[in-house]
Design brief:
Blueprint (H helix, E strand, L loop, with lengths): L25 H25 L6 H12 L7 H17 L8 H4 L8 H19 L3 H6 L6 H23 L4 H26 L6 E8 L2 E8 L2 H10 L1 H24 L9 H48 L16 H22 L7 H33 L6 H23 L5 H38 L3 H30 L19 H15 L4 H24 L7 H9 L2 H28 L3 H4 L1 H32 L13 H24 L5
Antiparallel strand pairs: 1-2
Length: 690
């Protein structure tokens, strides 16, 4: 069989329309499912711990190439299908940004397997179906950059080129081997450090310094999470500086002002008092800012979103001449799209009916609430699908404001349920209020599943377009990925909840919640829904956040009109206010590390008279792979620790030292963190010499 390189239909390496290669193969589906299990579990843990998930497309592509190259018949399109499947499932894990709220309010005592699976699978698959009509307008005809989709395509091409070199020389493909080595190096390093910190407790997980300037309290913090260092490396310096501004607003302005207005209660430590004010008040400033960022993004995308929908429906109506459509233009048939969508809506109806089955409500009211919730999830989800697809093409799926979209959704559905339920007396009791809050959270879970998959899928379809994949096969792979991810998410959530608990959730009697997972987005959205239903939402802080968001949007627009690289991403500022300082500061350190490395590479390229993009290609690729490895390694150890804690019932089953070692562990953790950052930078900077 000829190699894929000789089949390329263009200089860019795209497989031509008249070439048919194995794409959606059984071995590829199995490999994609295995990668899906790993990355979904990792993303669930990372999201619950720090409120962030990572894009699994690029590491999945590298792993796929490393495994499938053992088969002579493997090709670039089969590799693309594997990364497509794994990417969809890894992205679906973002549903944990809201679903744990049901445990936090006590409506669920765990995560019912079939209800959790159904809301994840049906919502995610609807996200796939909603993006199919958008593919032609937003991927083929659009000039959107799709940064992550283009990066994944380049990695697939490099791997395929190396396979061709193997056939010609008999030597191992250096770049493909280096890719998997880099991911494993980052993964093993982060796994070891995490084991010695959260497991053996020999290394500290962060450092906090508290200062009192009169009655005002100031906090300086830094975390030692290598996963956050890697995530920060991938975010970029612009977003990092915006997060730093948010951090300074929260802990350099808001907390000192609030603490200076009140005296510290007797018996309460300085740290506990300031942290409590930040959690109950300052975080809502971040929520308001994030909400403004999400709404402004939707406003700016409204016109292109409508144009994309119009073009897509025109394309669907003209699908009768399908046999003459080129292979790389064949989407799933309109009949299948409509049929699958109706089945998924029916599954949502059954799932919501099951969710409300235990509620003491009349049958008419139950089905009325089911209808309102499903219609909201489907209609709002479709609009969000178009907006999120555009955002992904513009700034990448990792940087899109999914949490902001969730905030908008939970506010709208909460107000809708409040309006509907007030007329029937549903919300007149405490139990009725809890039911309303739970329904708002569950409905928002479906919307977020649609939004996250829509946000990611157009990146994957862009990758497929660039390498010459068949769209309908890729869309089937996306559906498979959603199902596999939905199967994995419920047991992982149950495992992590039983092992750690969630901050703000009512713990079970046997739980030690000393190291409860923060689940920041779920905590925030649950607090917003609860505040709306109980009429106790801290609107003052939210309004301050809204005002701050408007000001920041105006500043960012001025910077945009001036041109240049200086921007102020409003969402990133809101996240900096909202996230715990040990988390936000580490992300900022990761962005600074990436910026320093970039500056060094630019100076070297200038000195040698070589274009920066050409000079730094190998270094940039290695940095992405190492950073991905750091995220995966720490996340997987977190899941492993959860299993050990759940099995033993001991919160610190592997601890080698006692509490008296904490101060020493803190400084040891700082030293190890600095050493890893230095080794990381050296490894990236020497890549172009390899």
């Amino acid at each position: 069989m000829p190699t894929t390189g000789s089949l390329a239909g263009s200089i860019s390496g795209r497989i031509s329309d008249n070439v048919s290669l194995p794409e959606l193969t059984l071995r590829g589906i199995i490999l994609g499912a295995l990668i899906t299990v790993v990355f979904t579990a990792s993303n669930v843990y990372l999201g619950l711990k720090v409120g962030l998930t990572f894009s699994s497309a690029i590491p999945a592509a590298v792993i796929s190439m490393a495994v499938l190259r053992m088969f002579k018949s493997a090709n670039i399109l089969e590799n693309n299908m594997v990364q497509t499947q794994a990417s969809a499932a890894g992205t679906l894990s973002s549903i944990i940004f809201i679903l744990p709220g049901l445990v936090m309010i006590g409506y669920w005592q765990g995560f019912p397997y079939w209800q959790t699976l159904a809301i994840c699978a049906a919502g995610g698959m609807l996200g796939v179906m909603f993006t199919i009509p958008l593919r032609h307008a937003m991927v083929v005809q659009s000039d959107l950059p799709y940064p992550e989709g283009v990066a994944a395509a380049e990695i697939l091409r490099v791997g395929s080129a190396e396979v061709e070199l193997d056939a010609a020389t008999g030597k191992a493909g250096a770049k493909a081997e280096t890719g998997i080595v880099d991911i494993m190096a980052g993964g093993f390093t982060a796994a070891a450090v995490t084991l010695f910190s959260s497991g053996f407790r020999v290394l500290g997980e962060g450092i906090n310094l508290w200062f009192a300037a009169g009655p005002a309290v100031v906090r300086l913090s830094a975390g030692f999470s290598l996963a956050l260092l890697g995530a920060g490396y991938l975010i970029g310096i612009v977003a990092g500086m915006a997060m730093l501004i948010g951090l300074l607003i929260a802990w350099g302005v808001a907390v000192p002002v609030l603490t200076s207005m009140h005296s510290i209660p007797d018996g309460v430590t300085l740290a506990k008092y300031a942290t409590g004010l930040w959690s109950k008040d300052v975080r809502f400033i971040g929520a308001g800012t994030i909400g403004v960022a999400a709404v402004w993004t939707l406003i700016t995308l409204f016109k292109p979103m409508l144009e994309g929908i119009k073009t897509s429906f025109q394309a669907l109506r003209g699908g009768n001449g399908r046999i003459n459509i080129p292979r790389t233009e064949r989407d799933m048939a309109p009949g299948w799209i409509i049929g699958i969508t109706l089945v998924l809506v029916a599954i949502l109806v059954a799932t919501f009916a099951s969710f409300l089955s235990a509620a003491p409500l009349s049958a008419g009211l139950v089905w009325g609430l089911v209808a309102y919730s499903v219609l909201f999830a489907v209609i709002f989800g479709f609009l969000i699908a178009a907006a999120c697809g555009y955002m992904a093409g513009l700034i990448g799926s990792s940087a899109s404001p999914i949490s902001g979209v969730g905030i908008v959704a939970v506010v709208l559905i909460s107000l809708l349920i409040l309006l509907v339920g007030s007329g029937d007396g549903l919300l007149a009791t405490e139990s009725g209020n809890k039911l309303g809050i739970a329904l708002a959270i569950f409905t928002t879970s479906a919307v977020i599943a649609v939004a996250t998959i829509s946000n990611d899928n157009l990146q994957d379809l862009k990758t497929g377009w660039l390498v010459g994949a068949t769209p309908w096969r890729q869309q089937v792979a996306l559906l498979i990925g959603c199902v596999v991810g939905a199967v994995v998410i419920p047991p992982v959530l149950e495992l992590l909840y039983n092992a750690y608990g969630f901050a703000g959730a009512m713990p079970r009697a046997e739980m030690d919640v000393t190291h409860a997972l923060s689940a920041p987005q779920a905590t925030l959205m649950t607090a917003i829904a609860t505040g709306i239903f109980t009429h106790q939402l801290n609107w003052d802080m939210i309004l301050i956040g809204l005002g701050l968001g408007v000001v920041l949007v105006a500043i960012d627009e001025v910077l945009r009109h001036r041109g240049g690289v200086a921007r102020l991403p409003v969402l990133a500022v809101g996240i900096g206010i909202y996230l715990p300082p040990t988390v936000a500061s580490t992300l900022v350190l990761g962005t600074v590390l990436a910026w320093v490395i970039e500056r060094v590479l630019k100076k070297r390229a200038q000195k040698q008279g070589v274009p920066y993009e050409q000079f730094a290609e190998a270094s940039n690729r290695r940095g992405v792979l190492l950073a991905s490895g750091l995220i995966v390694g720490e996340s997987l150890v977190g899941v492993l620790m959860a299993a050990i804690i759940g099995f033993t019932g001991n919160d610190s089953p592997l601890a080698l030292v006692g509490g008296s070692f904490e101060n020493t562990a803190q400084w040891l953790g700082l030293i190890v963190f600095a050493v890893v950052a230095w080794v990381f930078s050296r490894r990236v900077l020497t890549a172009q010499k390899a």
